[in-house]
Amino acid sequence: MAVVKQKIVPHLWFDREAKEAAHFYCSVFPDSGITSINTLHDTPSGDCDVVSFTLSGQPFMAISAGPLFRFNESISFMVYCEAQEEIDYYWEKLSAVPEAEQCGWLKDKYGLSWQIVPIVMDKMMQDQDPARLARVTQAFLKMKKFNLDALQRAYDGK
Questions:
Q1: How far apart are CA 70 and CA 136, in angstroms?
Q2: Quick one: which H or E segment has residue 13?
């Protein structure tokens, strides 16, 4: 009997790029690696590569099963960052569609959406002071990549 280590595992559908994407993502995130690569033969989509991998310890699966489905912005992965340098790093590595950049969201070269977010945003967005929340909201609505100093100044009312 198989042992389930993680109850929920994101599964990503690619046209033909599952292996390539998994290797790319593993190169971007620390504590990441390919767990297995298997090929399923004679499926309705032809031969399909199935890739298991981890990103920063979070398990993922990916399949190359043809162009039937595409990613869209209704699903994204949030990457919490401690400092501006970390925000800048992930933004540079992942963003491939400049016109899709807005409010900390970006789209990578495979069409997958990511949110590159400073950890402090959770505190800011849960603040019960409506004036603080409004200032932060107005600040981030103007941003593509989040600027941590500008967000903090807006939060502090400076």
A1: 33
A2: strand 11-14
